[in-house]
Design a protein that fits this description.
Immunoglobulin-like; disordered C terminus
Length: 328
């Protein structure tokens, strides 16, 4: 009878511990190799956290520079345990500006299996940049340069050589200009339409065999650029410079059908996890990347119309796609 009660208490304590370990709040730990450096010195910054299972911690989209701090390299390491996962983002930093600065607080996005997100912020770290010029160096007397000394009369033959070379150069330039004027100039061929250019780029991407070589991240980078370039040319926007949030904002005013807007938003948000959080998706997700792009290209491809007799010799106009202009 006592043994049964002990076993029941043990199971209850185990369940309590399990609930605590799976629901604890996630916090970021910030470590840095030193808070003092001289210009050009290397610093190592590590931001780590213990996250629950089935969650992804995405670091911020950083360029090569944060304030006065230059990011030379960064990478993400993930270690899996039974109750949680340990993830760390390591940055290699330096500065080339001789003044004190601060590594700002960086936002990290936590995505869990229930498709909810939370933003965590790292600790801001002030840095002291030490000058390499000491007080003793500032007292050194720097002497002026000695005046140029002359020794005899300079030879004049070099003037004839220089003048001859200049004359030959002028004659060659004149000959090239006259030759170009006599040649018939041809206008460069017009660029391919957006749809044809995108399909051609996709074929070239498939020839590179990124997926067969396990280079999923490189595959997502290049496919995203092809998709953005098509949207930029097809809808006359600067999509190649858009972030994902800017792309989603444009979709809201694009007039595209809801299913196409959802398709584009899913593609860029999911590929961002692969490109920037180094997440490895399932094969079905990787296959869906290409299917979503092809479906969007086919759905938004301009419909070419035949010119009538009065419009012979004029450029063909593109008609609006079925989904363009429909507002939900």
């Amino acid at each position: 009878m006592h043994n049964c009660r002990i076993n029941e208490h043990g199971k209850f304590l185990f369940l309590v511990l399990l609930i605590i370990t799976t629901s604890y709040p996630v916090t970021l730990k910030t470590d840095i190799s030193s808070d003092k450096l001289t210009v050009g010195d290397i610093l190592y910054l590590k931001i780590s956290a213990k996250i629950p299972k089935n969650t992804v911690l995405a670091p911020p989209e950083t360029e090569d520079k944060i304030s006065n701090i230059v990011i030379k390299e960064w990478n993400t390491t993930k270690t899996e345990f039974e109750e949680f996962d340990s993830i760390s983002v390591d940055y290699t930093l330096t500065t080339y500006i001789p003044q004190n600065c601060t590594i700002p607080s960086l936002p990290f996005i936590l995505n869990n299996s229930e498709e909810t997100t939370d933003t965590l912020f790292s600790k801001a770290i002030p840095l002291e940049v030490i000058s390499v010029i000491t007080e003793a160096d500032s007292n050194i007397d720097i002497k002026d340069l000695k005046p140029q000394q002359t020794a005899g009369k300079a030879p004049m033959w070099w003037l004839w050589v220089t003048g001859s070379l200049l004359l030959i150069t002028v004659l060659i330039l004149l000959a090239k200009i006259l030759f170009r004027k006599t040649q018939k100039s041809f206008a460069p061929p017009p660029p391919k339409p957006p749809f044809e250019e995108a399909i051609s780029a996709i074929h070239e991407l498939e020839y590179k065999n990124y997926l067969q070589r396990g280079l999923v991240r490189e595959y997502c980078f290049e496919l995203s650029e092809i998709f953005k370039r098509y949207i930029a040319r097809r809808f006359y926007i600067n999509a190649e410079e858009f972030t994902t949030e800017e792309m989603v904002a444009w979709l809201g005013i694009s007039g595209l059908e809801l299913k196409y807007r959802n398709s584009v938003e899913w593609f860029f948000r999911t590929t961002d996890l692969v490109k920037f959080a180094r997440h490895t998706p399932d094969n079905s997700i990787v296959d869906r990347f290409m299917n979503e792009v092809i479906s969007f290209l086919e759905a938004t491809k301009p419909i070419e119309t035949e010119p009538n007799e009065k419009q012979t010799g004029q450029k063909e106009t593109e008609t609006a796609q079925t989904g363009d202009g429909e507002k939900q």
